[in-house]
Amino acid sequence: MCRNLSEPTLLVEKCLPQGSPLTRYLCVGTSVVATEETTASELESRIWTRNEDPDLLRAYLVSEVVPSDTEPWWRTKALVRALLATAIKDRNNTRAAIEKAAMTKTDDEDAMDESPPVVTEDVLGVTIENFVRYKTVVLAVLEQDGEDSGGTSANSEAALLKSAKDCFDGDDDGMLACCVESLLQNEIVSIQGILAFCFESGCGITQWWELASTCFQVAFEAFKETTQQESGFGGIMLDTTGGDDDAAEGDKTMEKAEQLIKWAEPLVQSVVEQVYKALSQVESSSKNKFTAQEVDLVEGLKRFLLSIKSFVVSELTTTEREARSMWDKSEMSATRLLASKTSSSASAAAELLDAILEQGNF
């Protein structure tokens, strides 16, 4: 096209937005490689400056022609970085302001220097608002990158969450946890994807059990609400004190409680299985001394099970004895969790975990 124009620069000046990365396509004979950084910069402008229509943005991202050697999950990484741009800037500005305040001033002129502005708006609020606005774009990108990488939907969601964690350089787990919970509430990621993220190799998220427990509870509440709406039943509290007139309602309540138990069982089993799998991959140097990762996995699983058991029991009934009986009869009981595991490890940490489950110490 450029060869047919007397002034090729008109394509840039009249047809493309300022700074558009599409200009590189106009260079004849130039090898074009779509990079995460270039795409993220373009997306940031489209999202935060131009407030671009989600359908147009989705078409731009999904239809982009990418060389076969492009890094996996490049769309996901670029989109996440663009959507988190305000949060990243706020974090960087805050860090710079703190570092500047900690510096020793040597003269009055230095003391008058202005500190970087700290964003005062609701950073988490506006970030999640844009995630929701561009939800269709996020889901389309996850699907496309998932197909290119041959992974499951949980793998795609884990890649999205890991991209978000990388944007904060691992030093803002509080903001990350709030983002993850909000994404779950808005059905952008699932509890399965979050659990996959918690155990992803090299993720390194601190106190994974807190994030997993919190998100489990959010997902549990959502499932409970959906079950109630579909059945027209207004509550799930088990009342074992009623008379014959309450028998039918009690049966119905018990049925809903059993549905919640069945929903929770595979998720709890999945966490136990992934902990054992992770333990089998840890290189332990001593039988008498656990590595930090082994302690994190074993103690984390114990705390996770304690938290989930307490939560589920409190949600099912006002009679704790009845609820604990339901738990002990489920696939989440200690003996059944131990019997259902398929991964094994000869490490001392795995043996300790076996003992914890055998004794039901949670």
Give a quick rundown of the structure:
Helix content is 65%, strand content 0%. The chain is built from 17 helices and no strands.
Describe the protein in words.
There is one protein chain. The protein is mainly α and 362 residues long. The chain is 65% helix and 0% strand. Helix 7 runs parallel beside helix 10 and helix 9 packs across helix 11. About 6% of the residues have low confidence.
The proportion of residues in beta strands is under 5%
* Amount of helix: 55-70%
Q: How widely separated are the two ends?
A: 69 Å
Low-confidence stretches: 28-34, 105-109, 233-240
Helices, by number, come to: 17
Number of strands: 0
SSE ordering: HHHHHHHHHHHHHHHHH
Structural class: mainly alpha
Gyration radius over CA: 26 Å
Silhouette: globular
Mean pLDDT: 77
Largest sheet: none
Keywords, separated by commas or semicolons:
362 residues; mainly alpha
Question: What is the topology?
Answer:
Elements: H1 9-15, H2 36-49, H3 54-62, H4 74-83, H5 85-102, H6 108-111, H7 123-133, H8 135-149, H9 153-167, H10 173-185, H11 191-198, H12 208-231, H13 247-280, H14 292-316, H15 320-329, H16 334-340, H17 348-359
Helix pairs in contact: 2-4, 3-8, 4-8, 4-9, 5-7, 7-10, 8-9, 9-11, 10-12, 11-12, 12-13, 12-14, 13-14, 14-15, 14-17, 16-17
